[in-house]
Amino acid sequence: MYFQHLSDLGWNNYFQSQLTFEQLDTQLPFRVISQHRSQVECVGLNKNGQPIDVALGSHFWRNADTYERPTVGDWLMLDEHLQPQQLLERKSLLKRKSAGQTSALQLIAANIDTLFIVTSCNDDFSLNRLERYLSIANESAIHCVAVITKADLCSDTSVFVQAIANAHPSLAIETLNATHTDELDSLKQWIGVGQTTALLGSSGVGKSTIINGLTAASAQKTGAIRESDSKGRHTTTGRSLHRLSGGGLLIDTPGMRELQMVDSEHGIKTTFHEIEILAENCRFKNCSHTTEPGCAVLQAVESDKLEARLLDNYHKLLSEQARNNESVAERRSNDRALGRFYKNAQKTSKKFKSRD
Length: 356
What we know:
- 32% of the residues lie in helices and 23% in strands.
- The model is unreliable at 218-237 (pLDDT under 50).
- The chain starts with 12 loop residues before the first helix and ends with a helix.
- The radius of gyration is 22 Å and the shape is globular.
- The strands form 3 sheets. Strands 1, 2, 3, 6, 7, 10, 11, 12, 13, 14 and 15 form an 11-stranded mixed β-sheet that branches. A two-stranded antiparallel ribbon has the order 4-5. It has a two-stranded antiparallel sheet with strand order 8-9.
- It has helices at residues 13-16, 21-26, 127-138, 158-167, 185-188, 207-215, 265-271, 273-279, 296-302, 308-355, and strands at 27-35, 39-45, 51-57, 61-63, 66-68, 75-79, 84-87, 93-97, 105-110, 114-120, 143-149, 172-175, 196-200, 239-243, 249-252.
- By secondary structure, the protein is of the alpha/beta class.
- The chain has 10 helices and 15 strands.
């Protein structure tokens, strides 16, 4: 990845203000650009101000008073010998409960300014799924843009545009055929110099094709649509950050069939702010908007002022994230214990080194 200054990688006052003068003098900022099972790849400037890439183990890093694993987009501090020091506080974070029966928290990407929520003009299109992505992004106040792809496969894209606009009138929408690079120009307005944008969407909606077009390279493989169900083949298996010729940064993520909500109550309520506004007129302050008398939300549904689907999805996402929070809380307790183990191990190691 070619760059000259840390600002080219998204470094700004938010991250610099977390460091003391001594740390700024003795430590070097590196940004995680890709993540694998056992290591992360980072780029930064060495003590001579020259660009350099470093591979580090994806073990727990110190972040304030806790220990966390780094993810794509994170900023890590290394000493002049390129040894790990700390993980800086994140400006924003996309996360989910791990797929399957496990109760672990999985980090998707960090320090994102704008999120492209990618869907397509076929059977993949789902307002419920879009609202799931919106809620996760709104939890960290990430600016969102809905990107509707595969416009060439649809005779009337206005149906999909209007569906999103009716449910979320303030959400920006872009419609395009990702295989035509000239149509990708509409996305470039959202990717400023030093700004980090991420793509999120299910498998096969065209995220890799968008990245290929924006980076003018075939760094990501692409797959054809399965004619049987209009679903694309999953082609991206890792997370990676790309620097664009215009100076912006783009994070790709794998397609996710399952994106379980966790720690997203505020994000859900922000996404469904219309329901939250109506709730202010409910008879009871703790109204659940299910069977209570005098519920302004239910009255809005009955009078067709609020779509029933919106309320159903609102309930579904809140219940899901509450359930997942309980299972993840226990896992976090175990992770904190493991973090304390790493901390004690580091102290012991330093103690023996000092004796030598």
